[in-house]
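Support request from a user on the community tier.

User writes: "When I paste my structure tokens into the form, the page sometimes reloads and wipes my input. The last time it worked, I copied everything first. Here is what I submitted, just in case something in the input itself triggers the reload:"
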């Protein structure tokens, strides 16, 4: 079996690619210094914007990955979408935000980014939101890049294996931020990531990394014991010095006022785990499965909430292990999580 890039670091810890500015060059550099595996977060970026981040990563380490959002078109139920937009409009108006009720679609510059990565190969590319096509997998592998698919079910794992990927990242439902599920309309039931890892490994013969609900060393050990070769952490890095987490988000993570997380499609039209706030309480009951249309609909509203330092209307991504997050250097966090399992 091929040795996967994330299995060659000193520590079996992977820094999750948190798109939207949370994963900064400073954060990836700190993860690399600690002996973990860093990911450049390519989501929401054009190929032109992604290129300099990759260049900076190359200056730090030769062993890293790039994560992309794979397109996954969900037909928009226009009636449900319009009802959601109508409900959002008065709330947005109260905060001085104008929203565009017309659905917007895009592929997150996916084709351009694949073309760039084929022309400028990196060690590893991972995909989330959908399983990459066999053609894309082959194109990347032909230039020496390992391809990894994020999966959330055994069925997705089998599909990914059939399409020739080199490894899997198994994401449990307790992970913070967006679920990587290839079927964003499905009902996602709570379960342990370790159990999901064992089920996936019983179905496919591929290296597996895993994440979701990590709150400390014991959770890392549980996933490694289940058969994962590395553990992905994201929420535990949100309070670190190097993360680009918004001040409002940082404060909420440390506040006793926000003690519950929930999977919701209300913010973007795709299931994502966040701290429960007023936005979740008001809009989750009428949430629409329509990514990226809802993402674009609510984007200006969420940007204003960040500007106003208002946590009740901001997407406060967080996994169930968020109480394990601490301030300080990401290098220290990675070392503390991974040191007991250092590779020889």
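"...and here is what came back when it finally went through:"
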């Amino acid at each position: 079996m091929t040795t996967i890039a994330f299995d060659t670091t000193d520590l079996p810890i992977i820094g999750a690619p948190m798109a939207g500015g949370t994963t900064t060059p400073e954060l990836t550099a700190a993860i690399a210094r600690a002996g973990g595996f860093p990911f450049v977060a390519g989501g929401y970026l054009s190929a032109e914007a992604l290129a300099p981040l990759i260049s900076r990563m190359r200056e730090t380490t030769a062993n890293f990955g790039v994560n992309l959002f794979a397109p996954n078109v969900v037909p928009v139920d226009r009636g449900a979408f319009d009802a959601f937009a109508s409900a959002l409009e008065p709330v947005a108006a109260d905060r001085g935000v104008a929203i565009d009720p017309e659905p917007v679609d895009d592929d997150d510059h996916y084709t351009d980014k694949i073309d760039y990565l084929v022309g400028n190969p990196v060690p590893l590319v991972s995909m989330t939101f959908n399983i990459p096509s066999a053609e894309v997998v082959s194109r990347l592998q032909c230039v020496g890049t390992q391809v990894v698919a994020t999966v959330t079910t055994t069925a997705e794992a089998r599909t990914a294996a059939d399409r020739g990927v080199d490894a899997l990242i198994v994401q449990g439902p307790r992970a913070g931020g967006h679920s990587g599920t290839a079927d964003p309309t499905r009902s996602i039931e709570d379960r342990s990531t370790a159990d999901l890892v064992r089920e996936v490994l019983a179905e496919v013969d591929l290296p597996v990394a895993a994440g979701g609900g990590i709150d400390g060393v014991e959770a890392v050990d549980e996933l490694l014991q289940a058969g994962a070769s590395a553990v992905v952490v994201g929420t535990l890095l949100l309070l670190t010095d190097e993360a680009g987490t918004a001040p409002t988000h940082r404060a909420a993570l440390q506040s006793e006022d926000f003690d519950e997380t929930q999977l919701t499609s209300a913010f973007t039209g795709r299931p994502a785990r966040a701290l429960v706030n007023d936005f979740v309480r008001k809009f989750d009951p009428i949430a629409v499965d329509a990514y990226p249309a809802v993402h674009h609909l609510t984007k200006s509203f969420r940007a204003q909430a960040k500007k106003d330092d208002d946590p009740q209307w901001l997407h406060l991504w967080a996994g169930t292990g968020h109480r394990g997050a601490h301030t300080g250097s990401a290098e220290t966090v990675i070392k503390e999580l991974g040191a007991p399992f250092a590779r020889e």
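Agent notes: The reload is a front-end session timeout and is unrelated to the input. The mean pLDDT is 97. Residues 133 and 163 are 7 Å apart (CA to CA). Escalated to web team.
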